[in-house]
Every structure is written in C-alpha cells, then in structure tokens.
Amino acid sequence: MEQLFHLLKAAGEAQTINQRGLAAACGISVGKVNALLRRAEGEGYLTITREGKRSRYALTRRGVDFLEHTLRRRQGQKLPLKAAPRPKTAVVLAAGRMFDQKRPAALQPLDDVTILDRTVEVLKASGIERVIITAGSCADEFKQKFAGRTDIRLVENSRYKWTGSMASLALAAGTLTPGEAGGGLLIVKGSTVFERRAVSALLESDAPFSVLLTPLSGTGVEILVELDELGEVFRFTQDLRQVNRVEGEFAGLARVSGEVLEMMQEYYQKNSNPMLNFEYVLENIGRLYPLMGIKVDDLIWGQVWDGQSYQRMLNTVYPRILRQERELRQKMAAEAAVRILELEEDELEEISFAGGITNTNFLVCARGKKYILRLPGLMTETLINRINEKFNAQVASDHGFNCRIIYCNAETGIKLSEYIEGAETMTPRTIRLDENMKKAADIFRRLHRSDFKMNNTFDIFEQGEEYERMMEDPAAQMYEGYMEMRPKVMGEVRGRLRELGYDLTRPCHCDGVAANWVKDKDGRLYLIDWEYSAQSEPLLDLAYFLMENEYTPEEEELFVQYYLDGEPEPPEFQEKLLLMKIATDFVWSMWALLRDLGGDRLGSYGPDRLARAARNYEVWSAGRKSGNFV
C-alpha cells in the first residue's frame, strides 16, 4: 500500500511522465512500477492515456480519496508512551484567576468547607497521597490553613497576576522528588467542584495521558474539545467556530505520566509566553503522543470564576453533586443487597441511610427481615486489613459477641449483618450505668477467656513504632512533651510490662468506644465493629475501654469487680492496667497527630492523651517508690 501511495502521488503531480521517471521518483524498479500501474488502473485509482513516448496519468476520485485517507492515517500515527503507574500525587492549581478580584475561588465556602477543602478531601479519599497546592493571592491564608500537614505541599507563584496555569504547574513540578515525578500527576483546576467519580474515572482508566470530558455546561466559558477517530484529543478551544465536531468540554482534570510531565516541563522552558495555560501544553504534546479524552456523560460539576457562577454553584450545582453522590451510594447499596440476598428487585422493600463516618451503613428491609449493610469508606483498605476483619468478625459472631453476620467480603469490605431489633447505641454515659457496665464486663471476661484465635496480633508498642515511621520527623512534629515521654513509655513501661507478663495471646476487640456497644429490645448487649480486633493483651482492651468511656475511679473499681466475677484480683492487675493506660494514651496521641496531619482535625484529643499519659506515669512512678507496686 505504501508503494501504491507513492506511485499515485508521483503520477498525480507529474501527470505526464514515463515509467522510468516514475521508478526514480518512487525509488522502486521499472518492473514494479509497471505492475503497480496495471493494478491502479484496474482498481479504478487512475486512468492512463498516451502522449507520444510519454503517458498521461489522471487520478480518479477514488485515487484522490485513497491519497487523502492514507495521509490522514499517517498524521494520526503517534509515538507510544511507556506504561505508567496510578498517580499518587495531585497538583491543585489555585493561584490563577481571582474571585471577583478579591479572593481565589478555591477559598470560597461550600456549606462548612471551602472549594479547596472539598477538592483535597475527594483526592485523599481516592487514594492520592500527596497534594501540591499552588497559591498566588492570599498565600498566607493558604499557609495557615494547611500548617503542619505533611501530606500537603504549598507552592507560591508570586507572579500569578502575569502568568498562566502552566507557570504554576511548572513551579509545582519543580518541587517533586525523582520518585514523585516518575509516578506522574493528577492535575486539578482549583476553581472546579466535581463529583468523586471524576477523579476515579481518570485514575481507573488505562490511559496514562488523559483529560476528563463532560457534556457542555452552557456557561459560555467552556473549553471545547474535538477528538479524532481514535478518541484522542485533536483540539482545545473556546471558539466554537474552530471546532469541526464538539465532543465535550474539558472539566479541568487531567492525568499525566512521569514521561509526559517531563515533556511538559521541557516544552515550557522553551516557551516565551508567560500566559500559557497547561491544557494547551497538553494539546501540543498530544500531537505526537496519544492524549485520550475520558468521557463521563452524566457527571455533575462546575467552575467558579465570578459572583454569578459562585451563586450558581451554591444554589444549584453543589446541592446536585451531593444528592448525586448520595443516590449513587444508595444505588450501590441496593445492588449489593439484591446480589447478596439473591433477591428479585421488587423484593427489596426499603433501603435507607443508617449512619456512619468512615463507613456508610444502610438499613435494608427485604422479605420481612431487616439487615444492616456496610459499604466501606473510600481507601479504608489502607487502614484496615479486611481479611483479618472478616475472619475475626465471623468468629466473634459465631461465639455470640457480635451480631450475626450474613456476608462479609474481604476484597471489597462490603458487609451485611442482621439488624438488632430495638437497637440502642450506647454513649459514654449509658455504658457506665450499672446494668450495662455489668454486661460489658461479662462480654470482655468471656471474650478474653475464649479459646478461639483471632487472625492477627496487636502490640501497642510496635504500633507506636510504626506510627513514628510514618512521620518525617517525629521529634519536630509531635506534641509538646512527646520527647520526654518516649523513653519512659517505650523503655520503662514496656520493660516493666514484660516483667509482669505482657500477654498477646488472648482474643481482644481493641476498640471498645461506646458507639460499638449496642443493646437490643430485650436488653442483650452486643459488641460490634471488629475492624481492629486481634490477639492482644486483655488489660489493653480494658484500659482503652475505661479511658474512652470516661470511667471515674469508683466506676472503674466496680467494673473490675464485675470483670473478675468474684475471683481474687491478681497482685499485678492494677499496675498492669495503669501501665496499659500510659502506653495506650501515648500511642493514640501519635495516631491523633497523624490524623491531624492527614486533615482530620481532632482538636485537643492528641495533646490531652499525651498529657494524661504523663500524669499516669507520675502516678506509677510514685507508686513504685512508695511500694504500692512491688
């Protein structure tokens, strides 16, 4: 086909030429020319007439179509990109256009969060580990907002008034380590608000160089996108007159591999226009490498650039986004319930939201029975080992501690349990009432003495060391007093517990907060949510329970009596319990700091626990000196 293309092209340009001349023009033999001419004429690509010793060649419409098609195919050929991993870093471009010439759009509030807060939350929930934010106006406010966040990096573009978005992106890219840069980026315009599935659409595609497309929003400031026959971006433009066929609108999100990011930086270094925007850099690189358009036809999203668009976001777009996300979550729950319970769709009588923070729970009614369906929170698999949870929760259910589990999937984290009729969830106050205290103590005693085994082991000190490894510089980041307490807890307390018998061989729940205790209509108490359960030290289980539910010394004394059930208190019991309180508070203060650094503001939870660990350490030290603890 290639030789035929060159022959037709040369014949059409020369019109009158002999076969030797065609052979020279095409770089092939005269014999091959003769054969190709017979084929071309026979298939209707050209007509041949004689003019003396020369031949006159006239391309037919079919011949012209063949040349045009071959040229288009050639122009569509692009260089391949290397396979690339799913990005773990995102850049939010928030240094650009000012909101009404006063504040960046990213800092405008949406209910109780700003646009930027919402964007960061969606990115983190989608598996993005690092977020780089470029700031221009109000840079000090950005700094204050994200102070202490190790997962957030702020890059200031002091020339934001005179530069386009590519300048900010280049500054952000310049802060990446080689490892971060090699993993590629998710690029997000800071003035956009979108559904969570906008991010997953890009991250879950197999296109390492792609942009998110949606139907036209009708705002009048759309960046229109034209695609080629292969679904690759051919043109970005805001001028409808430049587009042959509008395939969608660029929604402000793009994914680039490390290879493409390097090309973008090189392109920008050679650029002389400071107002260049990053999407046009994508377009230019896309002329040589395949830039795919990822279309989500029903995505709800919007962009804020002035007061009118902001009011539209508050009054129309954002409420629709929240409603759509809620409905999609409920639809997922309904589909899961129908699948798990093997129902016909009309047998699903009710499905409604039943609470949840990390996870989302739904009340399911079908065939006259009620269930609780749990959909796991996004990316909770990084915090919770679902295989261990499935095994442990089922064992606890089989032995009557947990509510009855119908289904638990270790891969997806979806769980279906029987509904507890007349369910009353405990509070720190109600779990301290004598009736409930007695039942909780009985559950703990029977659990800790059970002969079954959990699927894993939990050591509070090893967990603390793991938290330290997750911090870049624990000494600099931890709350005041941490460095003084660390050798006391990880050295003295840990060593003393080993002397007394630090037993990690008993089944434990390890998360006895009040919300995990539920009482049914008949007064039976259940211990639910076994996500953190393990083989561990029983007094660690008790220490956490007593402290989280704010037991007074008198209430604690009574609880211990119920727990021992008439047996004499072992001589080391009180000392071990106090040591476990110290270790628990110390380590969970580290957990609280990591949550704070990750964006979950826990207030004084961490400092309060570190301070209480210090106070209890002093009590223990004084007791050792006075002979109370021998």
How would you summarize the topology of this molecule?
Elements: H1 2-14, E1 16-17, H2 19-26, H3 30-42, E2 46-51, E3 54-59, H4 61-76, E4 89-94, E5 98-99, E6 103-104, E7 109-110, E8 113-114, H5 115-125, E9 130-135, H6 139-145, E10 152-156, H7 165-173, H8 178-182, E11 185-189, E12 192-194, H9 196-203, E13 210-214, E14 224-227, E15 233-237, E16 248-256, H10 258-269, H11 278-285, E17 292-295, E18 301-303, H12 307-341, E19 348-353, E20 360-366, E21 369-375, H13 386-398, E22 405-408, E23 415-418, E24 424-425, H14 434-448, H15 460-469, H16 474-477, H17 482-500, E25 506-508, E26 517-519, E27 525-527, E28 534-536, H18 538-548, H19 553-564, H20 573-597, H21 605-626
Parallel strand pairs: 4-9, 4-11, 9-10, 13-17
Antiparallel strand pairs: 1-3, 2-3, 5-6, 7-8, 11-16, 12-18, 13-16, 14-15, 14-16, 19-20, 20-21, 21-23, 22-23, 24-26, 25-28, 26-27
Helix pairs in contact: 1-2, 1-3, 2-3, 7-10, 10-11, 14-19, 15-20, 17-20, 17-21, 18-20, 20-21
Biggest pleated-sheet summary: 9 strands, mixed
Rg, Cα atoms, Å? 34 Å
Morphology call: elongated
Helix content: 40-55%
Kindly report how far apart the N and C termini lie: 94 Å
Q: List unreliable stretches of 5+ residues.
A: none
Averaged pLDDT: 87
Question: How many H/I helical runs?
Answer: 21
Indicate the structural class.
Answer: alpha+beta
SS strand fraction: 15-25%
Write down how many β-strands occur, each being a DSSP E stretch of 2 or more residues.
28
